[in-house]
Structure formats: structure tokens, C-alpha cells
Specification:
Blueprint: H1 3-6, E1 15-21, H2 25-28, E2 40-43, E3 47-51, E4 59-60, E5 71-77, E6 84-90, E7 97-99, E8 102-104, E9 109-111, E10 115-120, E11 123-130, E12 137-144, H3 168-173
Parallel strand pairs: 1-12, 3-4
Antiparallel strand pairs: 1-11, 2-12, 3-5, 5-6, 6-9, 7-8, 7-10, 10-11
């Protein structure tokens, strides 16, 4: 047998991709302490903390409006399955944390969906979980977004609003189809 045949089977590693955005990131440089575009290993029994206190937090956000410890992520395996997940907990007493549409107060926690948007203040973080098999550690891969992740906050409605303010659905509910008329005919 060759050493290749005797080598242990390589296991895949769960990777948490986090894409960060803040509207003032170019001026305030709040992400300059984060290691972008390089995967980083985190032991499975370690809690990954995010905040401005570098003595406690593994991921530092250099902004006085961020709590010393803003939130934490903990890697775990679901009971009676081989599925690995992350739990997110809000550790800020002053700022609510939103995961998709779920608002978390201080010490509230939920399972992190496989793809979601985490937001607090003006911060937006797109979190995407890439599944793996390793039980000993997981990886984080940080990215920086050029544009806002939450575009829909800027766009209150995706449906065009006609100039007369009457929605096309109004006509459809009455069994009539909309007709175009010249404004001089009114």
C-alpha cells in the first residue's frame, strides 16, 4: 500500500461566510481589524464573539456605537442528527439584533438560518453556512460588500405606482382590465 492509500479520509469543514457592510465603511474604517478574504479556523468549543472589545472579541468592529460584545456565534450539532449549525446570541444591552425578520433583545438567541441577514444599527452582515463534516473546528471566511446588502429597505414597494394612484389590482378585482386614456380626456 502507498502512503496515499493509507492516509486518513479528508473531511470537509463547515464554513461560515460573513459579508459585512456599513454605509460609512470607507470613512470610518470600522472593519480594518477584520481579516478579509482568508479562511480562519475556529475550534468547535470556542464561542466566536463580535464587538469592539479586542480583549474579549475575536472579531473586532472599531466603532464606538458598537457594544463591547455585540453578539456571539456558537457552533453545535443538532440532537440526534449529524447536522452542524450555529446559534446566534445578542449580547448587547443597548442594541437589538435582527436576524432576517426576527428581532433579538439582550441574551435572546436563535439558530442561525443557513442563509440570512444579521443587522444592528447601520451594520448589515450576510451570513451563509457551507456545510461540512468536521467536529473539531469550523472556518470563517469574511468578505466586504461594496453595496448595501438590504436593498429592499431603500425600496418600499417593488410594484410600479401609476400616476393616478389607482393600483392595477383594483381593476382586476372588479373584473375590468385597465385602459389607457389621454389626460386631456379626463
Amino acid at each position: 500500500m502507498t502512503s496515499f492509500e493509507e492516509a486518513e479520509t479528508e473531511e470537509t469543514v463547515t464554513c461560515l461566510h460573513l459579508t459585512f457592510y456599513h454605509p460609512c465603511q470607507d470613512e470610518k474604517m470600522m472593519f480594518h481589524c477584520l481579516n478579509f478574504c482568508k479562511r480562519e479556523q475556529v475550534r468547535a468549543d470556542e464561542i466566536a464573539k463580535f464587538g469592539r472589545d479586542s480583549s474579549v472579541c475575536r472579531y473586532n468592529l472599531m466603532d464606538t456605537r458598537v457594544s463591547r460584545i455585540q453578539f456571539s456565534l456558537q457552533f453545535f450539532r443538532k440532537l440526534h442528527t449529524s447536522e452542524y449549525c450555529f446559534e446566534i446570541k445578542n449580547l448587547s444591552k443597548k442594541t437589538k439584533l435582527t436576524v432576517n425578520q426576527t428581532e433579538l433583545g439582550y441574551l435572546n438567541k436563535i439558530d442561525l438560518p443557513w442563509k440570512c441577514i444579521i443587522s444592528f444599527g447601520d451594520y448589515q452582515i450576510l451570513a451563509e453556512i457551507q456545510e461540512g463534516e468536521s467536529m473539531d473546528y469550523f472556518e470563517t471566511h469574511l468578505h466586504l460588500a461594496e453595496a448595501p446588502i438590504l436593498q429592499e429597505r431603500c425600496l418600499p414597494s417593488l410594484k410600479p405606482v401609476p400616476e393616478n394612484g389607482i393600483s392595477p389590482s383594483f381593476f382586476l378585482s372588479q373584473g375590468k382590465s385597465p385602459t389607457e386614456i389621454d389626460e386631456n380626456e379626463l
